[in-house]
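[Q] Does anyone have a clean structure-token version of this?
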Amino acid sequence: MSVTQASLDRRTLDLPAVVGRFLWHLPRNILIVVLKTYRRFISPAYGQVCRFFPSCSAYALEAVTVHGAVKGSWYAARRVARCHPWNAGGLDPVPSPVHVHWDEPSSVPLIVQLNHPDYFLAAQAETQSRTSASGE
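[A] Here you go.
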């Protein structure tokens, strides 16, 4: 068996897993496209009206990205229900998932980095100080 045939066989064996993963993440990915479209085209027309940080659309995007379609949509719906003129607003981060852990900062989704700037800026500064200290 040649190397190319072995790699072809491996790819065909992984095809059901790839298709299954695609179908499993399809609802989440559809919601992400809808939320990004809203943030790109509709949200700028309203301006900064959200009382919370991160904004409701950024919260929803992070919740769906991190927790999936069902749980993320539930978190987003609860957040939108709390966003009204009689609520003081403030800092309201997405609940941290127990099962998700990113090994490298480069693997963290951008929306998570943008919604938690203090954490990721501190981690980035710590990494830079370590590299500069080891380079001396």
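[Q] Thanks! Anything notable?
[A] Residues 108 and 123 are 12 Å apart (CA to CA).
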